[in-house]
Each structure stands twice: as structure tokens, then as C-alpha cells.
Amino acid sequence: MSNIDNKKKIQKVWCDGCYDLVHFGHANQIRQAKSMGDYLIVGVHSDEEVRKHKGPPVFNEEERYKMVRAIKWVDEVVPDAPYITALETLDKYGCSFCVHGDDITCTADGQDTYHIVKAAGRYKECKRTEGVSTTNLVGRMLLLTKTHFDHGIPINSMNPQDLEKISSDSSGKSPYTGVSHFLPSSQKIVQFSDGKDPMPGDRIVYAAGAFDLFHVGLLDFLEKVKELGDYVIVGLHTDSEVNRYKGSNYPIMNLHERVLSVLACRYVNQVIIGAPYKVTEELITQFKVDVVVHGSTLIMNDADGSDPYAYPKQIGIFQTVDSGNPLTTSDIVQRIIAHKLEYELRNQNKEKKELAVLEKIQKQKEMLNGNEVI
């Protein structure tokens, strides 16, 4: 028998989705799917399919393909994946089974998109990440059009009554799209982190910022940053600090959400949680930083009016990195605001479909329970 025959067969796993406004919830689903096999293939739906079944996507398909490729647990991306997962798709790519979260995904007419693979026993479920969804994030951005929120109040300090107003649909609340606070744990951070320290001689690059609504502009920036060294450390500013220099209702995502979103990126090795706005001698010494970088956007002064990058500039290790992509978090928010009514309708329709499916499941359970009594 040859060495090839002795080798364990590679277990290929499939998962698919829209992956719009890619966030740590998507990344966590992908991480869990990868843990069930050896090689993960992710199918991403086209703009046409997303519009047909969910409504207008925030990111176009090329942006979404690129974002998913950058998640560190993804081995391969299949563009224009069918919205209903078919056995033929799994067979074509040599995948044993499909993995999806324990939330509800429906077609435009309310059909379960995974009914075929479920019936064939080629479906596995992973735990959905509570407290975040694309629908939820869109709702947070829609809040920016409401003047009574526009007073520099960070999202995470709003009261529950204000947060409930994110959804325009008052007929009910879906447990999958309703608003809840993300509660981080040390275990989750460990799961997202590769846990590797820099090797002796590694060139260490440091980049700091808000990294809010982790998007393709930030991704292109980090890809360029990675080219400057061997080990990339990202410093994430606190919510109050981000709100100080960005104003309005920024950040859209709180610090803990931003930590996981950045850690999921294959170009990032380590994150400093709540990094100081001023890049000090102590920070550079502690983390043995060789290069400090900032994007081509304007550098806002520190609270005392000083340049936060004065020290790295003084010692000659500061560089400006142009990502070549002008997209900013503000641009993403403007996309939402410009199509406010469309996205409000998208959120309402998604929630109504999910509530209808939940009601159907509940009735089926009641019927089964009734039969057991008889």
C-alpha cells in the first residue's frame, strides 16, 4: 500500500451565505465549521440572489467575496453560490456536509434554504453568536438618522428602550434579528486568537484605530500593513476614545465586537484591547515595535491637542500606508442612510419571515405533544 493510501482522507466542509457586512458572528460560524473538518469551502451568494431573497446588500459581491477570503479559517471561496444548498453543490466540491448556525434562513417565499441537505443527513448545525447580525448592524446605523441619538453617545451606553427602537417592526421580535448586547468571554477571545508570539528577528508592525464595521477598506489597509513586516499588532481604541475623535454615534460596534472582528482577519497576529490613543515610548518598547503605521486618512489630535504619533515620528519609525481603497466606515453608514427605506423594509421583511417560521415550528411541536398525550 502506498503512502498516499495510508494518509487520512481530507474531510471537506461546506458553508454558505450572503456574508454581508461581514462581522465576528460570521467569523465564528466559519471558525466552528472549520473545526468540524480539515478543509473549509465557503460559498457566497451573488448580489442578484441576495436582492431576490433578502433585499439590497450593503456590500457588493466582489467586496463580500474578498472579505470572506480574508477570514483566517477559510480555505476556499466559491463565488455565486446557489441560495438553496443542493447535494450537487456539495458533491461538486467534494464536501461531506454543510454547516450553518442554529438560526433561520429562508428564501423569498419562506422555504428553508437547507431543507435538501437536511433531508439527506448532510447538514450539521453550529451555535449562532448571540447579540449580532447584519440586520442588527444595519439597524444601529439607521439610528444615525434620528437626531435624539446624535449627541456623541456611544452605542454601548444607550438604554434598552432606545436600543429596541432599532427595529421599525413593532408586530413582534425575532430572537435572531432582535437587539441584544454581545457579552464577551476570555474563551471566545482565545478561540479567535492564534496565540502565537512573534519569533526572534520578526519585524513587528503596529497599527491603531477604531476598525469599526470591519470592511474591505480596512482589509486592504491591513493587507498592505502585513507587507511591511512579519507580525502585525492592531491597537483598538476604547469606545469613549473613538467617540471623542469621530463624534456622532460612533463606534457602531463596541470594543469587544471590534476585537473579534479584527482577530478573525488573516493579516492580524495580535490585538491590544483598549490601546492608548497616543503611541508612546512605553508601548513601542513593551511590544518591541519596529514600524508604526497609519492610513492616509487625517490623524486626529489627542485630547490635549498633541500629535498622537509624535514619538514614532521623532525616532523615524512612522509610515503612512495608502490602502488604495478610499472606503471608510462613514461611507458604509452613508450607503445605509442613502437607502434608508429599502433597508428598513429589508429588516422588517426578514423579521416577519423568521417569526412566521418560528410560529410554524411551535405549532408542529404542539401537534406532536398533542399526539403523545393521546
From TrEMBL:
EC number(s) on file: 2.7.7.14
Single GO MF annotation: ethanolamine-phosphate cytidylyltransferase activity
BP GO annotations: phosphatidylethanolamine biosynthetic process
Pathway involvement of the protein, from the record: Lipid metabolism; Phospholipid metabolism; phosphatidylethanolamine biosynthesis; phosphatidylethanolamine from ethanolamine: step 2/3
Domain Cytidyltransferase-like intervals: 14-138, 207-316
Cross-referenced Pfam families: CTP_transf_like (PF01467)
Keyword NADP listed: no
Keyword Lipid biosynthesis: yes
EC primary class: transferase
Domain of life, per lineage: Eukaryota
Listed GO CC annotations: cytoplasm
Keywords attached to this entry: Lipid biosynthesis, Lipid metabolism, Nucleotidyltransferase, Phospholipid biosynthesis, Phospholipid metabolism, Transferase
Family per record: Belongs to the cytidylyltransferase family.
Protein's name according to its UniProt entry: ethanolamine-phosphate cytidylyltransferase
Source species of the chain: Hydra vulgaris (Hydra)
Lineage: Eukaryota, Metazoa, Cnidaria, Hydrozoa, Hydroidolina
Gene that this sequence comes from: PCYT2
